[in-house]
Amino acid sequence: METKILDGKQTAQELREEMRLEVLRLKEAHNLVPGLAVVLVGEDPASVSYVTGKRKACEKTGIYSREENHPETMQERDLLALIGELNADPSIHGILVQLPLPSHIDEKKVLYAINPDKDVDGFHPFNVGKMMIGEDTFLPCTPHGIQQILVRNGIEIASKHVVIVGRSNIVGKPLAMMLLQKQDNANATVTVCHTRTKDIGHFTTQADIVIAAAGRPNTVTADMISEGAVVVDVGVNRVNDASKPKGYRLVGDTDFNSIMGKAAAITPVPGGVGPMTITMLLHNTIKSAKRFKSI
């Protein structure tokens, strides 16, 4: 069987071009420029890289980007005060606090301080609750990106059995809720597996769509999927590789090479789900700006 590669870069580019045109229209028709504030505390290399990627994506899409870079010694009260300022700033429609935060800062307290109307990460309990009951809200970026990869590649979700391996608050749980909804691009039967699941392969071999979000290499292998299944790999793991200049390479949560030829389609790592996460962050920022103007 020829396995289709679900190219997240290509899908993200298509979506971002649509968004660029939408931002242009908002500016011309409504004098509205969507604004995103990204708050970074400390200099974690991965976080700095993510923030740089978000800034570049905003620039290419025409979204106003405001970066708030602060030292690791920033106090929690000062960060909360900054969140309050951004909540009140009419030019800012989305607020993202880059995680992880330094250990002396309560992440939950900071995330809960963000105005739910500017919670473009979709992590605030208010928005999580709305998502749970199927109301219109900001969808978490990675789960929404996964959904869009499937939809944009013509993969039917309705009536399919989706097995998600992983139950994190960032991917597994919200994705399960999204795909269960009685809505377009959902209506799936969803099974969630995790570290306490006995014989994960028993469930994944029954799946039409397998989503690997466990955070561990080779969690899903070829013998764990059925012929013709669709596989979405959410994992990003570093494994040692002396042949690479950096001494490592990035792999997902699946045994990609063995699954090729058995699955109908699979996302690569890198270049699969990753590019979609920032793309859906841009989507939520535009959505928030339109709400602000009641468009």
Structure description:
- There is one protein chain.
- Helix 6 packs across helix 7.
- Strand 2 (35-41), helix 2 and strand 3 (64-70) form a beta-alpha-beta unit.
- The longest helix is centred in the first third of the chain and has 23 residues, at 8-30.
- The strands form three sheets. A six-stranded parallel β-sheet has the order 1-11-8-7-5-6. Strands 3-2-4 form a three-stranded parallel β-sheet, sandwiched between helices.
- It has helices at residues 8-30, 45-61, 76-88, 107-113, 125-132, 141-152, 172-180, 200-204, 256-259, 274-292, and strands at 4-5, 35-41, 64-70, 94-97, 161-165, 189-193, 209-212, 230-233, 237-240, 248-251, 265-266.
- Among the domains are: 33-104, Leucine Dehydrogenase, chain A, domain 1 (Rossmann fold), CATH 3.40.50.10860; 141-274, 3-Layer(aba) Sandwich (Rossmann fold).
- It has ten helices and eleven strands.
- The termini are far apart.
- The model has no long low-confidence stretch (mean pLDDT 95).
Second-tier CATH architecture of the domain at 141-274: 3-Layer(aba) Sandwich
Number of beta-strand segments: 11
CATH topological fold name of the domain at 141-274: Rossmann fold
The parts where pLDDT drops under 50 for at least 5 residues are: none
Order of neighbouring strands in the sheet with most strands: 1-11-8-7-5-6
Question: What would CATH call the homologous superfamily of the domain at 141-274?
Answer: NAD(P)-binding Rossmann-like Domain
Number of helices: 10
Please state the overall shape, judged from the principal axes of the Cα atoms.
globular
In whole angstroms, the N-to-C terminal distance is 47 Å
Residue fraction in strands: 15-25%
Give the helices and strands as they follow along the chain. EHEHEHEHHHEHEHEEEEHEH
What composes the largest sheet?
A: 6 strands, parallel
CATH class of the domain at 141-274: Alpha Beta
Any idea what the radius of gyration is? 19 Å
Helix content: 25-40%
**Mean residue pLDDT:** 95
Structural class: alpha/beta
